[in-house]
Design brief:
This protein is mostly helical. The chain is built from two helices and no strands. The chain has one domain. 47% of the residues lie in helices and 0% in strands.
């Protein structure tokens, strides 16, 4: 795996992991009963998004997942040919 493809795969894993991590620990402004309510925002907006903490958690999660992916591809030698799909019909062979 080249450096560029490794970085591209890490970025994709990081981005998907971000959407997994974002909902954890969210309290809306309505749930905090107006403590952190800002004018002009919806009551369903997060009171404290904690985005830096979530980006750090995303980076750690993506690093673990990329490590598993790298191990599967480079160490174990798994690839697309190893995935089993439904058998091809005789008419397409």
């Amino acid at each position: 795996m080249s450096l560029v493809s490794g970085l591209a795969i890490y970025f994709i894993i990081w981005w998907v992991s971000l959407f997994v991590v974002l909902p954890f620990g969210v309290k809306t402004q309505a749930e905090t009963e107006g403590e952190d309510r800002h004018l002009g925002t919806m009551a369903s907006a997060p009171a404290r998004p904690m985005i830096v903490r979530k980006m750090l958690a995303t980076t750690i999660l993506a690093g673990i997942l990329f490590g598993l992916f790298y191990t599967a591809v480079e160490v174990w030698g798994l690839g697309l040919d190893d995935l089993t799909f439904l058998p091809m019909p005789d008419s397409l062979k």
